[in-house]
Specification:
single chain, mainly alpha, 5 helices, about 80% helix, about 0% strand
Amino acid sequence: MVLRLSRHVAALCFLSAAVFIAMTVLEFFYFRQLSGGLPSLDMRYFGFTPDEGMAWLTALGRRGGEIILVWHYLTFDLLFPALLSVTLVSLILASGRRLKNFRVLPGQVQSIFALVLVLPYTFADYAQNIAVARLLSDFLYANPDSLAFASALIVTKFALLAVPVIVIGAFWLTGQRRQN
């Protein structure tokens, strides 16, 4: 099942890009207006301080928090981590199969390798989504500890996302060198 994903790499990349573009358009043209120009917590790759998180929540208010909760966390961010993860697995398999040493591995080993690289990101992204959704749904939950935890999850998510992206890049570059 997992091995067949590499057959659909182009379609998965297109779908992931389309959802990412939709999320980015919402962020820059709608969510930032709701928060007075402050970037969403998800967009802060290096995290945020509890004061910055509280400033964002305060700027949103109840109405803005509900809008972001519904339009981002209960729609796009339910789909996107899974879609991106499937896309990353397909890219690892497709780029890895260009390499002789990867191609000779049993299919199950190839699949496990791809899943081990991608699943930590997936779990971290969903955990971060739950943490931020909790902050948006119950402002009383927003305290320095919960905000610091959400910030740490955001940083962890992006760090774990870098791992499969680097592996895909390395596989692709190695495959390019071998073709030349």
